[in-house]
Amino acid sequence: MDRSPPLLGTERTGPDLSQEGGERPDDWHVAHFTNPRFTSPLSLMPSWEFLGDRDISRLIAYMQAEGGKDADLRVARQSYWKTQSVAAHRAGSDENVQWLHKHIPEVWPNMPNPYPATDESILRGKKTYQEFCIGCHGTVGDGRGLALPFLDPPPLDFTQLRRNLVQGKYIGGILYYQIMNGITGTSMPYFKRFLESEKIWDVSNYVAVNFIGYTDSDIAPKGIDAAYELEWVNPYRTPEDLEKEGGLPPIISESHPDRPPSFGPGHGHMFPWRKQGTEEQGTDQPIKH
Ligand code: HEC
Questions:
Q1: For atom 40 of ligand 1, which residue has the closest CA?
Q2: Domain range holding 203?
Q3: Probe ligand 1: pick from 98, 104, 137, max atoms within 8 Å of CB?
Q4: Cβ(227) – ligand 1 distance below 6 Å
Q5: Does residue 224 lie in a domain region?
Q6: Distance from Cα 35 to the centre of ligand 1, integer Å
Q7: Which tens digit of pLDDT belongs to each residue from 155-182?
Q8: Is ligand 1 within 6 A of the CB of residue 136?
Q9: Whole-model pTM?
Q10: From residue 272, how far is each of 21, 113, 142, 224, 261 by CA, in Å?
Q11: What is the C-alpha separation between 284 and 6, in angstroms, rounded?
Q12: Could you identify the atom of ligand 1 that is nearest to the CA of residue 96?
């Protein structure tokens, strides 16, 4: 008889918690024990809300000790940064964003997203957003996800970034850096163990286009050549340019009619590197832009 247990992917056994102490601050744990889907939308773990506040805080104390002395150091670091992040949040929304950006190493704030914000990139980003971010940052990116009541500082309202672009135009590198590394002392997790680089750039494009209303995707300086999809012209204008022109911000829609022609039959873009009617037809080598 087959006695193997029913498999639900490798999630069946849950993650290794032996070094969990100090990986995340307490507020993340409160939201997560109350309902794991609040912080991690795909989680299979049951809710432990019925335990009540006292037992949940005991459980959290236990989790934060997992990992011995290393855990103690991480817990101390979380609480040091928690004090600062809460103070920054209390100081006001622009002050908070400036505080967040102040800690990002030099190259990132001036780095645009090297991936073109094609419909495909945005759709991939949307999927990642729904799977990992929506419980905190919310369906419209205003930080009002289901985890909000448990978290201090609250998840960032991305729309605030529109008036905090670096030099009035850069934001891609900042989004990438923060998503990759998380923000110690806040519930913002690091995703470098769960999302490969391309997914982080795609979700950055999604956040930028849908919630900030602008992406610096693929503008100069192009440090990393990742333009392997379509020839793509950035239709987004910086808030400053729009103001000068007295124009309206772009309509945020996945099928924006002004966006360049997209993937699909009839556009000759299905395999953009296969130039139609030339001898290059049939090569599998993408054209480098
Ligand atoms: C458990 C809740 C939680 C989850 C899940 C979460 N975030 Fe966050 N996020 C936060 C919090 C809290 C902050 C920082 C708030 C503060 O200090 O003002 C933050 C900040 C950020 C920032 C910083 C922006 C800046 O300008 O510095 C970015 C970018 C971000 N989140 C993107 C994401 C993305 C993308 C995902 C999913 C892949 C995600 N977050 C998942 C809670 C979360």
A1: 133
A2: 18-212
A3: 137
A4: no
A5: no
A6: 18
A7: 999 999 999 999 999 999 999 999 999 9
A8: yes
A9: 0.83
A10: 48, 21, 36, 20, 12
A11: 41
A12: 18
Burial bucket for residue 162 (CB in 10 Å: 0-12, 13-18, 19+): middle
177 lines ligand 1 (CB under 6 A): no
Dig out the tokens for 51 from the structure: 């335990």
Residue 207 covered by a domain: yes
Q: Which two structure tokens, joined as six digits, stand for 144?
A: 């009002």
Residue 252 lies in a domain: no
Domain total in the chain: 1
Structure tokens of 288? 């480098």
Reduced to 3 states (helix: H, G, I; strand: E, B; else coil), residue 64 is: helix
Cα 181 to middle of ligand 1, angstroms: 10
Ligand 1 centroid distance, CA of 188 (Å): 5
pLDDT of residue 84: 97
What percent of the chain is modeled with pLDDT above 90? Answer: 68
Residue 237 covered by a domain? no
* pLDDT-wise least confident of 21-25, 87-91, 139-143, 270-274: 270-274
